[in-house]
Amino acid sequence: MNRIKAKLKEDKKLLSIYFTAGYPNINDTVSIIKDLEKNGVDMIEIGLPFSDPLADGPTIQDSSTQALKNGMTTEVLFNQLKDIRKTVDIPLIIMGYFNPMFQYGVEAFCKTCKEIGIDGLIIPDLPVDVYHEEYQAIFEKFGLINVFLITPQTSDERIRFIDSISNGFIYMVSSASTTGAQSGFGDEQTAYFERIAKMNLKNPQIIGFGISNNDTFTQATKYAKGAIIGSAFVKHVTNEGITSISKFVKNILK
Amino acid sequence: MNYNVNEKGYYGEFGGAFIPEMLYPNVEELRQKYLKVMAEPEFQKEFNQLLKDYVGRPSPLYFAKRLSEKYNTKIYLKREDLNHTGAHKINNTIGQILMAKRLGKTRIIAETGAGQHGVATATVCALMGMECIVYMGEIDIARQAPNVARMKMLGAKVVPALSGSRTLKDATNEAIRDWINNPVNTHYIIGSAIGPHPYPDMVTRFQAVVSDEIKWQLKEQTGNENPDYLVACIGGGSNAAGTYYHYLHNPDVKLIAVEAAGLGVDSGESAATSVLGKEGIIHGCKTLLMQTKDGQITEPYSISAGLDYPGVGPMHAHLAKTGRAEFMAITDDDAMNAGLELCKLEGIIPAIETSHALAIFEQKTFKPDDVVVVSLSGRGDKDLQNYIEYFKI
Ligand SMILES: Cc1ncc(COP(=O)(O)O)c(C=O)c1O
């Protein structure tokens, strides 16, 4: 079974962490992944940096710019990850924008992901409609789970459509924002979390954007199967380097 | 061959709407409504009235006698520089502000390169009493200072884009991020024939008034509504799209699209997308795009802020790929000289963007009885400092 699906079946709330590959240093990728797993993180989103990350706030933008300056490319990332399954068991997802995948060739990209042991992809600027018409068959051929976003503005009808195309989990964007823009959850978000929870979707939901500490993690996982932390982790790495990952994770799961 | 957008939002293989889910409700609402709204008689009436009384349309089609003599052909200039605010950009912003009102939006955002679109947006926002935020690259803020001041006087907030090359591409990124953060009350007035469907088509339709007028004006002046050539400079491609629109399917009319070569197409400092670009995705559409082989968008260069963009509208990508339009690339130097030449020969100071279109007469020979219509997309007031420094005036 796909590792994401197996993980979603576990009877616990899931913590997923995003980091930008190639940041702070080009060769940190594997050690960050191992450290996150060792400290009890359930799932990892490996950010393939892009020059123009439209859906990201300043923190992830800056880390992406630095990663590209450090020399990160699709090829380099795949090389770094080629033996990752010898040591790491938790689900690994690549999160990136569509153009670098399109240039690599979508089929070739998916094939390499499969060979490495990547379990899924999150591609914010590949809309579900285009995926469904042009790429779904390729993803399925290589057993990859494509994860779609929903937001507070997504209509019920579209959520049902996204649920029908999805085959792992649904990425619930906590509020109308780019990454990193939130500082906590108010009534509006709680109402949205409740609304989605009541829809009884076939795919579990994981909430992301604006989760930064134990408090927001606990709030989000009251309504959802798990939560994703991105900008807060990247900030932590910026400020404290990659040697204190355990401190960060312990603070979330305390 | 169809050169217009199809039902799915594509021009041939280019176009579409590659947007994050956060933008879907806005873009989808626009897609469902734009044609209906534009077809409403009330909308048409208000749009045409404003173009006439406020913008000053129709803009003249002027036979440039001395320029024609010099190049031994018949050159007509479509005087978009005489529009209110000094460029073609206002045709689109008038249309989109009326659209925004009908969609119930109260806050307007825009990106700008040369500042002409920013000024045109700030202007219509003042006219309609709407809040206006314009994103502009830090580099462009410096090289187009008069337009920054104009936007501020008109009540707009100008926000510098500090990422990437700090030019038009980055300003567009910031505007898109703003829209993601403000999905309910905000309309994004894109300033060129770029972006996710339906933007390229909507902007083209608002700019189509240009070729609509060329048709009857040319008929009036020459007895034939069809020129031999239509020439326009291309940043994202809105003045070109408007200039070509009613002639797209008339094979007797040849189209010339002029890109910025910067310091030279092969210099590494260029914005000649049709030569340097490959199919890719930028700002929500699939089009020709300057990028690394790894799919990272590269930073373009042109002396002209309005042409300093690594992509081109999807309609133009299709025109390039099918050969319907001939693409030419003009360097900074050749453009600047052509701009100065128009001043001396015709008493018209053109925008540096437009100067690129004028520079083709040094490179391409036309027949004496060819009728060549050039889109004079904007006036050069905003560029005086650049002309002064370049020519040490
Ligand atoms: C005078 C003028 N011409 C042309 C352009 C290029 O834009 P487009 O290709 O959309 O016409 C600009 C853009 O700022 C402009 O100000």
UniProtKB/TrEMBL annotation, chain A:
It catalyses: (1S,2R)-1-C-(indol-3-yl)glycerol 3-phosphate + L-serine = D-glyceraldehyde 3-phosphate + L-tryptophan + H2O. It comes from the Bacteria. This is Tryptophan synthase alpha chain. The active site is at E45, D56. Belongs to the TrpA family. The alpha subunit is responsible for the aldol cleavage of indoleglycerol phosphate to indole and glyceraldehyde 3-phosphate. InterPro entries: Aldolase_TIM (IPR013785), RibuloseP-bd_barrel (IPR011060), Trp_synthase_alpha_AS (IPR018204), Trp_synthase_suA (IPR002028). Tetramer of two alpha and two beta chains. Keywords: Amino-acid biosynthesis, Aromatic amino acid biosynthesis, Lyase, Tryptophan biosynthesis. It is an enzyme of class 4 (lyase). Gene3D superfamilies: Aldolase class I. Its EC number is 4.2.1.20. Pathway: Amino-acid biosynthesis; L-tryptophan biosynthesis; L-tryptophan from chorismate: step 5/5. GO terms for cellular component: cytosol. GO terms for molecular function: tryptophan synthase activity.
TrEMBL record, chain B:
Keywords: Amino-acid biosynthesis, Aromatic amino acid biosynthesis, Lyase, Pyridoxal phosphate, Tryptophan biosynthesis. Residues 56-378 form the Tryptophan synthase beta chain-like PALP domain. Pathway: Amino-acid biosynthesis; L-tryptophan biosynthesis; L-tryptophan from chorismate: step 5/5. CDD domains: Trp-synth_B. The keyword Amino-acid biosynthesis applies. Its EC number is 4.2.1.20. It is an enzyme of class 4 (lyase). It catalyses: (1S,2R)-1-C-(indol-3-yl)glycerol 3-phosphate + L-serine = D-glyceraldehyde 3-phosphate + L-tryptophan + H2O. Its cofactor is pyridoxal 5'-phosphate. One of its GO terms (cellular component) is cytoplasm. It holds the Pfam family PALP. One of its GO terms (molecular function) is tryptophan synthase activity. The modification N6-(pyridoxal phosphate)lysine is found at K89. The beta subunit is responsible for the synthesis of L-tryptophan from indole and L-serine. Belongs to the TrpB family. Tetramer of two alpha and two beta chains. This is Tryptophan synthase beta chain.
